[in-house]
Amino acid sequence: MHPIPARGRGLALYLAVWVLAGTLLAALLRGSGAVSWPQSLAIALPLSITYAFFCLSAWYVSRSMPLSATGVFRIVTTGLTAAVLSSGVWLALARGWMAIVARRAGLDAADAFAGVSALLFGFGLLLYLLSLAVSYLLASFEQSRETERRGLQVQVLAREAELRSLRAQIDPHFLFNSLHSISALTTADPPAARRMCLLLADFLRDSLALGSAERITVARELALAGRFLEIERVRFGSRLQVELTSDGADDCAVPPLLLQPIIENAVTHGVAHMLAGGTIRIAASRGSAWLSIVVENPCDPDRPRRTGNGLGLANVRARLRALHGDNARVAAAELDGVWRVEIGLPLEGETTTDP
Fold it and tell me: Which CATH number fits the domain 189-346, given the four candidates 3.30.565.10, 3.40.50.720, 3.30.420.10, 3.40.50.300?
């Protein structure tokens, strides 16, 4: 369907433009000397409004011959043919309408029409070609917008694929570490290994319940972190202590399992290398426009430097970059035997439900 008649405001604006064109036509008719001002207006305005609907066909002509797929010669010849036919039909209507106006004004209709017929035909031809040009401009604009929309859609799909890939990295990495710990406990402490299996099953059930959720609340994320650390406490006992705090941030939204790689690193590369163990502190706080999450753990300056692919911070940074671009930050540093990771991301509103 034609976009102009489909929208009331667009149709009103379109007809208003044609009223201006009718006023111009009336001035040209008056300048020819064949009719007076009242007669020229009586002739030009109704004819212009009528021709406005003739020129709507230019939109269909432009759609049937897109610039990208049609030769110039065909476009020119078809456009001129449509313009001549429309102007010819309009000229025939103009002759009948001028006869009515001339009869009421007591003029000779044949003389009046003969004096302005060439003007009317040329005016109609010009307006149709102008309508065709505008239709092609609108088609180019719509094509540009469609191309832009598809580009944005591709970017969104690429971002979602990246996020799924990054999320998929977390679960196998976590499972590998957990199964390795269970394997070590099976000979040293079978009851502890059995308890760790049960806790791991509960944790996996809880994490899988997130499904395809893009966001969960900070409260839920901290609860997941606590359950994971409960699993690790089976292995480390009292050597591993945990502090979870939230300052007005419980309802803020974060990607699920965002803290998981960081907490794994805090255990594996922090507490595990401390003879006396230590405390992992996780604190979330909400500002006016930012959510801040800080993870701290003790670390031994003489510990073996980590090997492997550095999944933890790289994964977190990549996920936040895909979601927020440069508006999120992840800073990590070691100071006085404490490894500190701070995540800052813009607030996106509150989450009311969890999966």
Answer: 3.30.565.10
